[in-house]
């Protein structure tokens, strides 16, 4: 077997390409990576992220060096928060000679919640997405959080002699902000805008409580996004948001949807 350390290996990615088409994003997707995320109540928590790393590619290069993306990620350790993701994208720019670089991390985030009456503890999972990008010397960061909630239909309550239909809804919010905002605080703002929060563990007294709480707080999907928007508007650190709500209707074979967006994109 030949000793490859003494042989010059072909660098196909650096070969010239004559089609004169720039690629906006190229890199790796679907990379599973253990990370440690800052936690408001317990300092940090460990989870597993699905990672995408991408850069732009000038028209005269045939390809990019895929191994360098993983090298950069590994070199920055496992702790991930708003401030250190920018060091990753800047290192991608430098190592891959790129003008723009992107990192996307998607991961489950867990919060221990107590049932409202018995105090029984259970973990609820939320979906979180960090997107960081560098454009030459400019940077951008967006945090996405998807929160499951309970919603009860105001119309059904108003027209029915007995009960009202309710369903699970999902609120997905994207935020740009000036100072760090805790994931837990975003979740609390969303849950308090719905008919009732979601819990993983409920005993009978708890189930009675949340059922009646939802009945006393009916919201259309339109009410839901507006309620969240009011809470975001009251936070001076949030300068852009997008709020999407989708109710998995219990009496229809379709979902109800609403979206509201505010702020100028950078």
Automatic annotation (TrEMBL):
The pathway noted for it is: Cofactor biosynthesis; 7,8-dihydroneopterin triphosphate biosynthesis; 7,8-dihydroneopterin triphosphate from GTP: step 1/1
What domain of life is recorded for the organism?
Bacteria
Q: Where is this site: May be catalytically important?
A: 153
Q: What is its EC number?
A: 3.5.4.16
GO MF assignments = GTP cyclohydrolase I activity
What reaction is this protein's catalytic activity?
GTP + H2O = 7,8-dihydroneopterin 3'-triphosphate + formate + H(+)
Keywords of the record, alphabetical order, are: Hydrolase
Could you identify this protein by its name?
Answer: GTP cyclohydrolase FolE2
Question: Mitochondrion: present as a keyword of the record?
Answer: no
Q: Which gene encodes it?
A: folE2
Q: Which family does it belong to?
A: Belongs to the GTP cyclohydrolase IV family.
Q: Which Pfam families match?
A: GCHY-1
Gene Ontology BP term (one):
tetrahydrofolate biosynthetic process
Function according to Swiss-Prot or TrEMBL: Converts GTP to 7,8-dihydroneopterin triphosphate.
Q: Please state the span of the N-terminal signal peptide per the UniProt entry.
A: none
């Amino acid at each position: 077997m030949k000793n490859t350390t003494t042989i010059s290996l072909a660098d196909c990615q650096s070969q010239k390409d004559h089609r004169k088409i720039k690629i906006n994003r190229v890199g790796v997707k679907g990379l599973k990576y253990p990370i440690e995320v800052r936690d408001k109540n317990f300092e940090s928590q460990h989870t597993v992220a699905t990672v995408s790393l991408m850069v732009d590619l000038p028209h005269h290069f045939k390809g990019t060096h895929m191994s360098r993306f993983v090298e950069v990620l590994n070199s920055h350790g496992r702790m991930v928060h708003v401030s250190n993701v920018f060091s990753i994208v800047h290192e991608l720019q430098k190592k891959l000679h790129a003008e723009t670089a992107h990192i996307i991390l998607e991961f489950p985030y867990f919060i221990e919640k107590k049932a409202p009456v018995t105090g029984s503890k259970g973990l609820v999972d939320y979906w979180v997405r960090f997107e960081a990008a560098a454009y030459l010397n400019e940077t951008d960061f967006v945090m996405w959080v998807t929160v499951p909630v309970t919603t009860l239909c105001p119309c059904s309550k108003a027209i029915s002699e007995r009960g009202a239909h309710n369903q699970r809804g999902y609120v997905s919010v994207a935020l740009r902000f000036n100072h760090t905002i805790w994931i837990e605080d975003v979740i609390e703002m969303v849950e308090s805008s719905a008919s009732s929060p979601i819990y993983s563990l409920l005993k009978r007294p708890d189930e009675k409580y949340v059922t009646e709480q939802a009945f006393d707080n009916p919201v259309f999907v339109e009410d839901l996004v507006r309620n969240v928007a009011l809470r975001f508007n009251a936070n001076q650190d949030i300068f852009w948001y997008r709020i999407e709500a989708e109710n998995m209707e219990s009496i229809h074979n379709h979902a109800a949807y609403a979206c509201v967006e505010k702020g100028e994109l950078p």
